[in-house]
Automatic annotation (TrEMBL):
The lineage of its organism: Bacteria, Bacillati, Actinomycetota, Actinomycetes, Kitasatosporales. It comes from Streptomyces bikiniensis. This is GTP-binding protein. InterPro entries: Gliding_Motility_GTPase, Gpn, P-loop_NTPase. Keywords: GTP-binding, Hydrolase, Nucleotide-binding. Pfam families: ATP_bind_1. It comes from the Bacteria.
Length: 207
């Protein structure tokens, strides 16, 4: 697993003048905070709070009984693509009671990553529905929780994914794995731009 020390964190280029926004969404406990944390070049902003008994009966913790903290607003990270273009990552909270925040987080979004736990695929339906409603391009990334193996065909059928939506597998704890998810999204966005030349072109991801 890759790790990033404080000495490896990067400062923002003084020439950076174009901010690009990507949102990471998905069900409760699928690893959104972990993905943003693993791939961000800066120390990410997290709004995690300790889960208490007050949340019992409100948040569905089925399948994530060992989870002790939860995002209550959003996660935020940053990646410099080149000297001028900066990618800003926003991780959305997964609990149903925070879904009202999602529409605001989607504002100005270039594209999205739907992170899923294949043991709880139904938890991803809302995220996919909202992205399709907003017309936001997205990819689906299956985070590895060590559950039963599923084929891409089985997952696509369960999520009713269109053929053009990329589906990848990842380990959100790994910087390299999370980076590949974002590269897949950027390539998907480039493909969409090629079909409709009206939007501004998407810059190549940094190596």
């Amino acid at each position: 697993m890759d790790s990033v020390t404080s000495e490896q964190r990067q400062t923002l280029h003084s020439t950076a003048d174009n901010g690009l926004k990507i949102v990471v969404v998905g069900g409760f406990g699928v690893g959104k905070t972990t993905l943003v944390r693993s791939v961000s070049e800066i120390r990410p902003l997290n709004t995690e709070e300790t889960m208490t008994q007050a949340g019992e009966g409100v948040d569905d913790t089925g399948g994530v009984a060992t989870k002790t903290a939860t995002t209550v607003a959003f996660d935020f990270g940053r990646i410099s693509l080149d000297a001028h273009n900066v990618l800003y990552l926003f991780g959305a909270p997964g609990q149903e009671r925070f879904w009202f925040l999602w529409d605001r987080l989607f504002s100005g979004t270039l594209g999205a990553v739907v992170l899923v736990d294949t043991r709880r695929l139904a938890d991803s339906w809302y995220a996919i529905d909202r992205l399709e409603h907003h017309g936001t391009p997205f990819v689906v990334a299956c985070n590895d929780f060590g559950g039963p193996a599923h084929t891409t065909g089985q997952i696509r059928e369960a999520l009713d994914l269109a053929d053009e939506v990329p589906l990848v597998f990842c380990d959100a704890r790994s910087r390299e794995s999370s980076k590949q998810v974002l590269i897949t999204l950027v390539e998907h966005l480039q493909s969409a731009v090629a079909q409709d030349p009206t939007p501004q072109p998407i810059p190549e991801p940094a190596p």
